Amino acid sequence: MFKFLKSLAFILLFSVSFASAQSTTDEVQKIKVGNYEVTYSMKGRLIKNQPHVEIMTEEHGTVVVDVTIDKYGHVISATPGAKGTTTDSKYLHTKAKQCAQSALFDSKPTSPIKTQGTFTITF
Questions:
Q1: All domains of the chain, ordered by start, with CATH?
Q2: Could you give the dihedral angle defined by the CA atoms of residues 103, 106, 109 and 112, in that order, rounded to the nearest 10 degrees?
């Protein structure tokens, strides 16, 4: 009986440790890119190469971009204007899309073929 409880305790401890390690990449991550704050949420993935943000305007607003990446971390689609966007500026939407497309996430060959998430850029 004691051996069984000891094994069960080990399994539970391992499960909790593994879940804790996984939760860090399931949350919203914040990064600073130049003078701009970029937040992203991509389940189980982290940014390997930071995105680039270059704008030539004084417009302000927040643009949320729906992003899909492949299992190798490449952005395969980026659609600006998702729920939470605070501007209708086509210029900022274009720049937010370019920012999202320039990001590279960590490669995980065992991940699903596509992973969906969001990028939020505050200009």
A1: 27-122 (3.30.2420)
A2: -60
Q: Using an 8 Å Cβ cutoff, are 40 and 102 in contact?
A: no
Cα separation, 100 vs 78, in Å, equals: 7
DSSP 8-state assignment for residue 71: T
Distances (CA, A) of 111 to 6, 42, 47, 67, 104: 33, 12, 15, 16, 15
Phi-psi region of 34 (alpha: psi -120 to 50; beta: other; left: phi over 0): left
The two beta strands, 29-33 and 36-42, are antiparallel
- Measured from the Cβ of residue 86, the count of other Cβ atoms closer than 10 Å reads 13
pLDDT tens sequence across 100-119 = 999 999 999 999 999 999 99
pLDDT in tens, 19-30: 333 334 568 999
